[in-house]
Amino acid sequence: MDRTTQLTARRTGTADPVRTATSPPFSGHGEIGPSRVAVYDPVRPAGSLHLRAAEVLHGNWTGTSTVPSRGLYPHQWSWDSAFIAIGLRHLSPLRAQIELETLLDAQWGDGRIPHIVFNPSVPLDAYFPSPDFWRSSTAGRAAGAPRTVQTSGIVQPPVHALAAWLVHVSDPGLSRARSFLSRIYPRLAAWHRYLLHRRDLGGGGIASVVHPWEQGMDNAPSWDAPLSRVTPAPARSFRRADLDHGAAEDRPTDLDYGRYVRLATDYRDGGYADGTDGTAGFAVEDPAFNALLIASEHALARIARELGATGTARHARAERLTAALVERLWDPAEGMFFCRDVRTDELIPERGVSGLVPLLLPTLPRDTAATLVRTLYGPHFGLGGSTRLVPSYDLTGHAFDPHRYWRGPAWFNTNWLVERGLRLHGEHARAEKLRGALLETADTSGFAEYVDPYTGEACGALGFSWTAALTLDLLHEAPEAVHSTTEEFGKGAKGGDRR
Ligand code: 9WN
Fold first, then answer.
1. pLDDT higher than threshold 60 for residue 31
2. Which GO molecular-function terms appear in the entry (predicted)?
3. pLDDT value for 47
4. Cα 424 to the center of its chain, rounded Å
5. Of the four, 134, 222, 374, 465, which is 20 to 30 A from 95 by CA?
6. What does the pLDDT read at residue 57?
7. How confident is the model at residue 248 (pLDDT cuts 50, 70, 90)?
8. Angle at 180 between CA 357 and CA 423, to 5 degrees
9. How do residues 64-86 score in pLDDT, each as one tens digit?
10. Do the Cβ atoms of 252 and 220 come closer than 8 Å?
């Protein structure tokens, strides 16, 4: 056992098993071809990191999709799959397409993409809340839940159209041969329609989340105030499976879990209906969730263009959404985007990495982007100084804890988004430095789920899929390929014009 494995095993009481492939994983159509692999450390060949990342994804592949980690998260998760597809495309564009197709096959009639698609061969007690809690095919019938597959009833951030576009450009020939985009475009369009029409609970033109799990950063301090109004479900009424795998001091508290369970129960018992009258027990407009929706809307415009339409209306909508995001969530005095509590109509003054993610938007006003970069490199996030990766929460904040879930540690997906944002806004040297730190930390941490932002110490599960996938994506991001990053993220949409 190496040092990192020992550390994590000590912290969590278990190490996620990562199957080691003896032969190069993935053979067949569109397989390994690291033609543009960039070396991050001349002493360690990038190829070995590439191979180990590929082995993680190979070990976590179920045949039709990829689990985030074998032990802690044994089903398919929505935004995980989008990030996984972004990395998987470098190994097997076919698998990357299948990853997204499997998820979209579980889409509900009202357009929502569920946050979990359950694998029926996994025992019910392996993860909580399990299918018998969500009861999607019965409780979700009016909302159009599928009959043949069991899912959760809430959603996760809409990274999917962005992922679909990136998967397409990795092998346009295969994509066209399989009619990948034409098959999934209507589903992605329905997904965005659901978010923009059924989830504009604040009436300001952007989407709300109705559960902390929907935003993906479950335990962020931004949820504390809106969650405090929720009566927790009694601790005896459910059994947490996450504590079988994760250290209790790193995971959300039982009290918070009780509130998560109450919110999900109430939503289920209301048939997963979305009232637009502001009565949801929890309704928050989040900057990262909406920034990802906007980035995906730009991607949907590109997909539409590829399919023969102009895509102009979608780009225009993405720009209107960007303006609404700034209007609703930007705090110029603090130089941050904040969450808005829809119930009180007030910003929640907690600095989280979510408030930096809008940096990935191509038409963010120039001074807003510059201010965000200053905040990122200032005392609250410490990049370029005390931290090696962007922490999930304010280093100076009252709730900061470098190891507790979403209250300080650094995650690879949010760092990848920030790295993209830096590149998009011309901060190439800083992006390059962050990329190097991400690759190194992924390597030394054993592709950990998350890490201590100061030391890079591994936390949570090892062999975590999106960590491996985004490592692959960063390895393929050779400096000469940077222009395609800009193109992929939609800056060229209207010549990258900014207000
Ligand atoms: C609840 C799977 C998911 C991620 C989330 C992360 C965590 C689940 C949990 O794991 O959430 O959805 O049980 O804590 O917070 O971002 O998608 O990796």
1. no
2. Glc3Man9GlcNAc2 oligosaccharide glucosidase activity
3. 66
4. 19
5. 134
6. 98
7. confident
8. 25
9. 999 999 999 999 999 999 999 99
10. no
Q: Of 104, 110, 294, whose CA–CA distance to 184 is shortest?
A: 104
443 is catalytic: no
Q: How far is CA 192 from the centre of its chain?
A: 16
Which pLDDT belongs to residue 25? Answer: 43
0.85 surpassed by pTM: yes
Question: Higher confidence at residue 485 or residue 121?
Answer: 121
Quote the CA–CA distance of 40 and 176 in Å, as a whole number. 33
Query: Does residue 100 contact residue 85 with C-beta atoms inside 8 Å?
Result: yes
**Closest Cα partner for 417 from 457, 455, 371, 473?**
473
b/e code 136-174 from CB counts within 10 Å (16+ = b): beebbeebebbeebbbbbbbbbbbbbbbbbbbbebbeeb
CA R_g for the chain:
21
What's the 450 CA to ligand 1 centre distance in angstroms? 12
Active-site residue among 218, 224, 334, 401? 218
Per-residue tokens: 299: 């991607």
| Highest mean pLDDT, choosing among 1-5, 256-260, 480-484 | 256-260
Distance CA 475, CA 46 (A): 8
Q: Which of 111, 117, 112 is nearest to 99 (CA)?
A: 117
Q: Pseudo-torsion of CA 201, 202, 203, 204, nearest 10°?
A: -130
The pLDDT score that the predictor gives to residue 46 is 62
Containing 137, the helix (H) or strand (E) segment is helix 136-139
Q: Which atom number of ligand 1 is nearest to the Cα of residue 465?
A: 18
Question: What pLDDT, in 10s, does the model give residues 189-216?
Answer: 999 999 999 999 999 999 999 999 999 9
Rounded distance from Cα 27 to ligand 1 centre (Å)? 30
From the CA of 361, how far away is ligand 1's center (Å)? 24
Query: CA–CA distance from 471 to each of 12, 93, 168, 170, 459 (Å)?
Result: 23, 16, 19, 16, 17
Query: Hey, which of 56, 75, 77 would you mutate to test ligand 1's pocket, going by the most ligand atoms within 8 Å of its Cβ?
Result: 77
Query: Contact at 8 Å (CB) between 362 and 496?
Result: yes
DSSP code at position 196: I
CATH number for region 49-476: 1.50.10.10
Catalytic: 449? Answer: yes
* pLDDT above 80 (res 45): no
What does the mean pLDDT of the chain come to? 88
